[in-house]
């Protein structure tokens, strides 16, 4: 967090945009650390993964025509307002809103993150598709819903999670990890670590979370069967009241939502269960926690999975978690090894998953994308000028005042997608 003196300096430099702190995360991001990470050689795994995911586009580059065709295919196959087209022109962020789409007057976390990067490091003009979904594919989406009929007309999609080995999808950090949430979570976890050494922790597994799929309720039912091994409860609000009542009657739902991190980290073993896709950002927190992550085998992957190894950074569980109790017993018998695994995980998180590391990765993805971009900037500028569906969201508060004064578009006073 910036000191008062630094805050005043920032304000004087950026007095032309009094909403800078509201529209970006420049206050949270340590400029000196972020700049040094860009200047220094990034971790090898980051470079290799980004190169691997962009490989299909190296030969022919990325044109606006390809982005057009890919976006049309997505809208035709599976209409979804959480998959959005953006452009960066002259280092300003533009977003495409459909004719009947409500214009959001607030930035999503991802939009703030992109504008934060643009503030510190200029990005060459690009035309890009970004999914705000929890992953690709989700729900009723088929695996190839975004793939064009002609291979040469394909453009990439950026998303925070995807099914393992799914082609043409470029991983980026999830919305919580690029927001103030992760800044606060890091501080909270590090503070809890100071009060909970490995030796002081209980040989016990602890989990609380939301009902995003069946495996989580199964975990909670296992906790009722094996109370000496683990505690697990659903604690997030369930939209279906009848279902929530049923879960309460089964003894696997607890209305108490928040649970202190200090109390959570009194336990050595922290199960990680699949969510809508993967488990962002629960995995990052567990890796940092100095406790042992018991990771369920699930099909989704996130941007930082590549360098992680079983029995080096976490202990794996079967997809159906039928071996959970067995693994807890194993961990009790191999305490020194599990202590080493938890230390490896914490070291990895401190060196690869800090707020500045998250932004480094997002920056590297945008930089790589821009290096492959073959768009005609002048044509794009004309297109934006002539198509009112393209809206400059670089200064959202200024835009907000303009839109509220006119009846140009329907507006809503919240971020859409609401992340």
Strand line-up across the major sheet = 7-5-4-1-2-14
**Rg over alpha carbons:** 23 Å
Q: What is the total domain count?
A: 2
Estimate the helix proportion, in percent: 40-55%
Q: Report the major sheet.
A: 6 strands, mixed
- Structural class, from helix and strand content? alpha/beta
| Mean pLDDT, all residues | 91
- Uncertain stretches of 5 or more adjacent residues: none
Layout of strands and helices, then pairs:
Elements: H1 4-13, H2 20-23, H3 31-39, H4 44-54, H5 64-77, E1 83-89, E2 92-96, E3 103-104, H6 109-120, E4 126-131, E5 157-159, E6 162-163, E7 169-171, H7 180-195, E8 202-209, H8 214-225, E9 230-234, H9 241-249, H10 261-264, E10 267-272, H11 282-288, E11 292-296, E12 300-301, E13 315-317, H12 324-333, H13 335-352, H14 355-372, H15 377-386, E14 390-392, H16 396-405, E15 411-412
Parallel strand pairs: 3-15, 4-5, 5-7, 8-9, 8-10, 10-11, 11-13
Antiparallel strand pairs: 1-2, 1-4, 2-14, 6-12
Helix pairs in contact: 3-14, 4-14, 11-13
Structural write-up:
The chain is of the alpha/beta class and 419 residues long. It folds into 2 domains: 23-177 and 356-412, no CATH class; 180-352, Glycogen Phosphorylase B (Rossmann fold). Helices cover 42% and strands 15% of the residues. Strands 7-5-4-1-2-14 form a 6-stranded mixed beta sheet. Strands 9-8-10-11-13 form a 5-stranded parallel beta sheet, sandwiched between helices. The longest helix is centred in the last third of the chain and has 18 residues, at 335-352. The two termini are 22 Å apart.
């Amino acid at each position: 967090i910036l000191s008062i003196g630094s805050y005043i300096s920032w304000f004087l430099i950026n007095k032309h945009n009094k909403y800078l702190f509201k529209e970006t995360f420049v206050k949270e991001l340590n400029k000196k650390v972020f700049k040094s990470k860009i200047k220094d050689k990034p971790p090898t795994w980051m470079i290799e993964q980004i190169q691997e995911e962009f490989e299909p586009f190296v030969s022919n580059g990325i044109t606006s025509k390809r982005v057009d065709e890919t976006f049309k295919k997505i809208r035709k196959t599976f209409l979804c307002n959480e998959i959005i087209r953006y452009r960066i022109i002259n280092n300003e962020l533009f977003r495409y809103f459909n004719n009947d789409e409500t214009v959001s007057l607030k930035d999503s976390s991802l939009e703030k993150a992109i504008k934060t990067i643009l503030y510190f490091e200029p990005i060459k003009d690009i035309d890009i598709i970004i999914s705000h979904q929890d992953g690709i594919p989700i729900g009723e989406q088929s695996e190839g819903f975004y793939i064009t009929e002609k291979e040469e007309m394909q453009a990439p999609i950026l998303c925070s999670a995807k099914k393992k080995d799914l082609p043409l999808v470029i991983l980026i950090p999830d919305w919580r990890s690029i927001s103030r949430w992760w800044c606060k979570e890091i501080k909270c976890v590090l503070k809890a670590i100071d009060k909970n050494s490995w030796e002081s922790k209980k040989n016990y597994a602890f989990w609380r979370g939301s009902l995003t799929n069946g495996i989580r309720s199964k975990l909670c039912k296992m906790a009722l069967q094996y109370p000496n091994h683990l505690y697990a409860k659903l604690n997030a609000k369930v939209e279906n009241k009848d279902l929530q009542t049923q879960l309460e009657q089964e003894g696997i739902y607890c209305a108490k939502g928040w649970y202190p991190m200090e109390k959570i980290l009194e336990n050595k073993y922290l199960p990680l269960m699949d969510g809508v896709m993967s488990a962002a950002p629960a995995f990052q927190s567990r890796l940092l926690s100095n406790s042992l992550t018991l990771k369920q085998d699930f099909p989704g992957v996130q941007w930082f999975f590549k360098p992680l190894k079983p029995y080096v950074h976490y202990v794996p569980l079967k997809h159906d978690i039928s071996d959970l109790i067995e693994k807890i017993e194993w961990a009790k018998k191999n305490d020194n090894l599990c202590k080493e695994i938890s230390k490896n995980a914490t070291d990895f998180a401190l060196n690869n998953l800090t707020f500045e590391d998250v932004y480094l990765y997002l920056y590297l993805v945008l930089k790589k994308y821009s290096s492959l971009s073959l768009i005609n900037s002048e044509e794009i500028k004309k297109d934006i000028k002539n198509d009112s569906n393209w809206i400059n969201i670089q200064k959202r508060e200024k835009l907000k005042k303009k839109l509220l004064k006119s009846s140009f578009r329907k507006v809503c006073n919240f971020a859409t997608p609401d992340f």
